[in-house]
Amino acid sequence: MHSYIYLASQSPRRQELLHQIGVKFELLLADASEDAESLETHIPNESALSYVERVTLAKLDAAEQRLLKRQLPWAPILCADTTVAIVLNDKEIILGKPEDETDAKRILQILSGKTHQVHTAIALLANQGSKPKVLVSSSSVTFKSLSDAEIDAYIASKEPMGKAGAYGIQGIAGSLISHISGSFSSIMGLPLYETAQLLQETGIKFSIQN
Q1: Looking at the domain covering 5-202, what would its CATH class be?
Q2: Under 8 Å between Cβ of 77 and 67
Q3: Angle 54-56-57 from CA coordinates, rounded to 5°
Q4: pLDDT tens by residue, 27-42
Q5: What pLDDT, on a 0 to 100 scale, did the predictor assign at position 88?
Q6: Which of the following is catalytic: 31, 81, 90, 103?
Q7: What are the residues whose beta carbons fall under 8 Å from the beta carbon of 92, sequence distance 6 or more?
Q8: How far is CA 182 from CA 8, 10, 186, in A?
Q9: Rounded Cα gap, residues 89 and 105, in angstroms
Q10: Are strands 5-7 and 77-88 parallel, antiparallel or unpaired?
Q11: According to UniProt, where does the site described as Important for substrate specificity lie (predicted)?
């Protein structure tokens, strides 16, 4: 039985969501010696579901090696990754984090007036050497038709930067989204239902457990 977990994510939203359900955690973040961005490289013709699961497991493996290298006390490790994808002309396109404001505008123009998918994978390693448990939550999000002025104003807020699909549903973008189907917390970056399932299976206590 562990009283806390390691969260291998620098996302403030994931941290906020864990706090929301009363999970005690410590951050286990990459340092300058790790090339964390390379883990998110796409493989040609890889589906968004395969991609998000593969990247999450790669992040989990890197986090385990990080913990061992730093000789930290063992506790379960939680990783997550969120991928945004849209089908255009019968072809699935993965929309990652924008490289700059021009790229953010390109992505938001693609999303404008359409429904896209958000896949968030979570992986939990309970014990050293054990097989990680992985779950994926998929949701659909529909943007209203966006004018260039709305896109430019949103980009000027800086909110799109560093986010898959160039938006954060918990922020200003919530006013641009006409419909969602699925899990709001998953679209934010950490599906609470699936996370609670893994925590229960691992014996980690959180708010609603006796």
Answers
A1: alpha beta
A2: yes
A3: 65
A4: 999 988 887 777 788 8
A5: 95
A6: 81
A7: 47, 48, 85, 86
A8: 24, 24, 8
A9: 20
A10: parallel
A11: 13, 82, 170
